[in-house]
Specification:
Methylamine Dehydrogenase, Chain H, Bulb-type lectin domain-containing protein, transmembrane helix, transmembrane, WD40_rpt, elongated, WD40/YVTN_repeat-like_dom_sf, 2 domains
Length: 466
């Protein structure tokens, strides 16, 4: 079950799988009220399917199966309309009032529909040189409830966050996530002013999640406490809580005002799904180690730890936090760039049962790996500094040696020629000495300045776990 979602009245929920099935349930029975099965034939170019479902308040249910977008009324399994996009979709959203549907995926296009027509209102191609079909695959999508903004995240080679408005096909703005940072997950606040993006996992980018303010290309902060990729993120409706799910580091809770973690759920394995209650007081998360956790946002305890008989692929929580719907299935996740032993269940790895526990943050510097670009740049700077120092020493030796030659009168030339030659050589050597001396002074001052910046101040200590 690759997608699950609750209706706004909390009376029903829906799920979709990767076998072209949509299930519609009432919360009081495990027997579906209705099932819809698609019949799209496999052509070999659609890609691995990821069925998706999303509810609106007016009784609409949007869904996608094998690249076809469907619109249902929840009282019937007969679609109001359907539209094929040609390739599988990785993201599907419907506005809260049921006016718009947006979808995106493998064919590198973002589509927008008004729900009164099966013909897209517009489409926008994420162009990228060298990418699939001349574009970049969209792997995540989220829409603000007020329908004013929706945001998408792309894979290589684009590796960016794109923000759209339903009113126009051109993006409002684009923010480059990193040098090699596929944006695998996005979440947006209710007012559409903040969105959280996650992914990464490559040493070229020493961070794995970013918080953006709408309209600002530079992130508010970058989460740099681990090199392991972030698999799922969630931001609370009021943009106060930022929850990050890692493929090996468990679940991490941040106050959105800072990148510094407040608490962490350790021993939870690869976090594959996160949902927040509407009031932001509860967090539900699922893992590839077959566990579902229910936690308060203060991290005071683990309220529930349900052991399921399969890996969790999708999860949603009812608006009041009374129910959690969980979809399980085969492991279709990939783990890359991970630091440490993979016991998370990701990538088909062995699942090792671990005792999940909540760990509060300490007050020490963050743990950017020594192999990150920051450290690599420092190493390069030190190497250049050493080379210039060696050049300075060599110039001193040559200068001293030539003075000795003059003193011992070793040049076999007449006096006028000696004076001219000595003048040229001494001026040249003096200039080199001064140049290398100035360069070395510059590097010494720069390194001292950088060292002071790297020291945590008493008032701004960064946090990490004890």
């Amino acid at each position: 079950m690759t997608s699950t979602a609750f209706s706004f009245d909390d009376k029903n929920f829906a799920g979709a799988d990767n076998n072209q099935n949509i299930y519609f349930f009432g919360i009081t029975s495990n027997n579906p009220k209705w099932i819809f099965t698609g019949n799209t034939k496999e052509t070999g170019n659609l890609g691995a399917d990821k069925g998706l479902v999303a509810f609106a308040r007016n009784g609409y249910l949007a869904a996608s199966l094998k690249g076809i977008v469907y619109l249902f009324k929840t009282n019937s399994n007969k679609p109001i309309w359907s539209h094929p996009t040609g390739m599988v979709l990785n993201g599907l959203v419907i506005s809260e009032d049921g006016k718009y549907i947006a979808a995106a995926g493998r064919d590198t296009n973002v589509y927008l529909w008004k729900t009164d027509s099966s013909t897209p209102l517009w489409s926008h191609k994420i162009e990228a040189k060298g990418g699939l079909l001349g574009g970049s695959v969209i792997i995540s999508l989220a829409m603000s409830p007020d329908e004013k903004h929706f945001v998408s995240g792309t894979s290589c080679p684009d590796r960016s966050v794109h923000v759209f408005s339903p009113l126009q096909p051109d993006e409002i703005f684009q923010a480059k996530a990193g040098l090699n940072f596929p944006v695998g997950t996005v979440s947006i606040s209710d007012d559409g002013q903040y969105f959280l993006a996650g992914g990464g996992g490559d040493p070229e980018d020493p961070y794995t999640a970013m918080l953006y303010k709408m309209g600002t290309n530079e992130p508010v902060w970058r989460f740099d406490f681990s090199r392991n990729p972030v698999s799922v993120v969630a931001i609370s409706s009021d943009a106060k809580s930022c929850v990050i799910g890692s493929n090996m580091d468990g679940l991490i809770f941040n106050d959105c005002s800072s990148k510094n973690p407040i608490w962490k759920l350790e021993g939870a394995g690869h976090i594959s799904a996160i949902a927040l209650s509407k009031d932001g007081s509860l967090i539900a998360s699922g893992s590839l180690t077959n566990h579902v956790f229910l936690l308060p946002i203060d991290g005071s305890k683990i309220i529930r730890d349900w052991k399921i008989n399969n890996k969790i692929e999708s999860l949603d929580m009812s608006s009041k936090g009374d129910y959690v719907a969980v979809g399980t299935g085969l492991n279709r996740f990939f783990i890359g760039g991970a630091v440490g032993e993979n016991t998370s269940g990701a990538g088909g790895g062995e699942i090792k049962e671990q005792k999940a526990k909540i760990v509060k943050a300490g007050s020490i510097q963050n743990n950017i790996s020594p192999s990150t670009p920051t450290s690599q740049n420092n190493n390069s700077t030190q190497l250049i500094n050493i080379l210039f120092f060696l050049f300075f020493l060599l110039s001193c030796l040559i200068f001293g040696g030539y003075i000795l030659v003059i003193k011992l009168n070793l040049l076999k030339r007449n006096n006028s020629e000696k004076l001219k030659l000595n003048k040229k050589i001494l001026i040249t050597l003096s200039a080199l000495l001064v140049l290398f001396f100035i360069i070395n002074i510059y590097f010494v001052l720069s390194n001292n300045s950088q060292s002071r910046k790297n020291l945590p101040s008493r008032s701004t200590k960064q946090k990490i776990y004890n």
